[in-house]
Each structure stands twice: as C-alpha cells, then as structure tokens.
Amino acid sequence: TTADNDDVRVELLMVIDPDLALHGRTCYEPLVSTHLDTQGGGKICPMGLKDSQLANGEEIVLSIRTHWKALAEPIALAIFLLAVVWAGWWFTRDLSYGTWITLALGVLAVGIALFFVVIPILRWSTERYTITTRRISHRTGILTKVGRDIPLHRVNDIGIEKGLLDRILGCGTLTVSDATDKAGMDLHDVPGVEAVHVQLQNLLYSRDDGSDDGEWPPNEPPRSRGRA
Fold first, then answer.
1. CA angle (75, 142, 158) in 5-degree steps
2. Edge-to-edge strands of the sheet including 60-65?
3. What pTM value is reported for the model?
4. Which residues, 6 or more positions from 72, have their beta carbon under 8 angstroms from its beta carbon?
5. What is the DSSP letter of 71?
6. How far apart are the first and last CA of the chain?
7. Is 48:137 a contact under the CB 8 Å cutoff?
8. What sign results for the dihedral spanned by CA atoms 215, 220, 225, 227?
9. For residue 12, is pLDDT > 60?
10. d(Cα 28, Cα 43) in Å, to the nearest integer?
11. Which CA distances in Å does 74 have to 80, 114, 118, 225?
12. CA–CA separation, 133 vs 120, rounded Å?
C-alpha cells in the first residue's frame, strides 16, 4: 500500500540522513515525488536531479549525499592550521616582529585551507547519488558538472564493500555494473549502505522480466521466476 511504501522510505531516510527525516515532510516529499512545491514556501531538499531532468513517470526514490566521513580530513587539517597560527602568535607575541610572523602564517594557512579544506568541502556538498524508478545517477562538480546515469534495466551486478571504519560508521561503497564494456559506477561513502543496497535490489527485481538480455521493455514473454 501507499502507506507502507511511505513508512519504508521514511525509515530509509532516517538511516541515510536523519536530518532530512526529522525536518518533516517538506524535506521528505521532494525525495519521493516529482512535484516540488516552490510556490508554497516549503523547504526543498538538495538533490542531484532536478524535477525538469526526470522523464515522464519517473520518480526519485533516494537522493543521497556522501557520508560525512569524507569531511574528516579537511576538518582535521583546518583545526591543525588554526593551531599552527595560534602557536605562532603565542610564541612571538612579545617580539617586535611577532605580528609579521603571525600574519605570514595566517596567509600561508589561508592558502592551504583554500585548496585542501574549502574545495573538498564544496566538492562534497555538490556530490549526489540519486536513485529513481528508472536509473542510478551520479552528479558531482563545483563549476563543471560531471555525471553518469545507468538505467536500472542495464544493471547486472551490484557489489558492496565495507572496510573496518565503514562498518563502524555505517557507510560503504557500492559498485554498480551494467551490461556494457564500460567500467562500473562506484558510489563511494554511501551512508546506510546496507539499506540502499536492499532498496536497489528491490527496484531491480520489480523491473526484471527474467530474460537477462538487458532489454526494456522486453520483446518476449517473461520467464517464470521459480522452477518449472
């Protein structure tokens, strides 16, 4: 039923991004519907695909931002740079040229932070994995947008990988392979990776015609899923 589907999707949102589910249906609705209420003042959650980029009848099932684990290194570097600048000021505050040393350290820290803190954070904020009822989409890029889509009916394998830290944080990598010669699509640092993997399997099974030929729509009658 529709109510059951809503409950499942809310549960998945709680796993993938608790903030989205806790903000209420103004955030939840755009993730599962192609209708975005831009006139009603409701909050629109960030997504990799816009409403205008969806095909007729296509709906967004999940819109996922990579796990915050990707921000650990730039944030740690930012703290280290602040500590260096503070230490420089502390040890040279009584010197006549201490202000210049602190200023030089500050300029150097800002330059390093721009490339190794700000840019990684912006890159993280613009990267999205979107799963719709028809495809798996990856969008990233700050100024130049880069993306790739794999139609669900072309997917023939979904691999999952979770390192020790990933298991602790509840994230992981999904590798989606399709029926082409191109390399598979790697979805790194997917939060709630187990729930996303199950959702993908359910979507693939619902669209499987049993022919294993990559055709959609199928040109032959569906084969029986069970034993004859």
1. 85
2. 60-65, 128-132, 135-140, 146-151
3. 0.62
4. none
5. G
6. 30
7. yes
8. negative
9. no
10. 10
11. 10, 10, 8, 49
12. 30
- Name the residue with tokens 């650990």: 72
Structure tokens at 142: 């700050």
On the CB side of 94, CA atoms within 13 Å amount to: 1
Per-residue b or e along 13-36, where b marks 16 or more CB atoms closer than 10 Å to that residue's CB: beebbeebbeeeeebbbbbbebeb
Q: What is the pLDDT of residues 62-121, one digit of tens each?
A: 888 889 999 999 999 999 999 999 999 999 988 888 899 999 999 999 999 999 999 999
Residue length of the chain: 228
d(C-alpha 133, C-alpha 60), whole Å: 6
Q: Beta strands of 88-178 (E only): which ranges?
A: 128-132, 135-140, 146-151, 155-161, 171-178
> Could you tell me the two tokens for 57?
């009848």
* pLDDT for 48 beyond 90: no
Do residues 133 and 59 touch, judged by C-beta distance below 8 A? Answer: yes
Task: Cite the beta strand spans of the chain per DSSP E.
Answer: 60-65, 128-132, 135-140, 146-151, 155-161, 171-178, 185-191
Rounded CA separation 139/150 (Å) = 12
- Average pLDDT (40-58) is 60
Task: Provide the angle, in degrees to the nearest 10, between the axes of the packed helices 2-16 and 25-32.
Answer: 110
Residue 1 in tokens: 């039923």
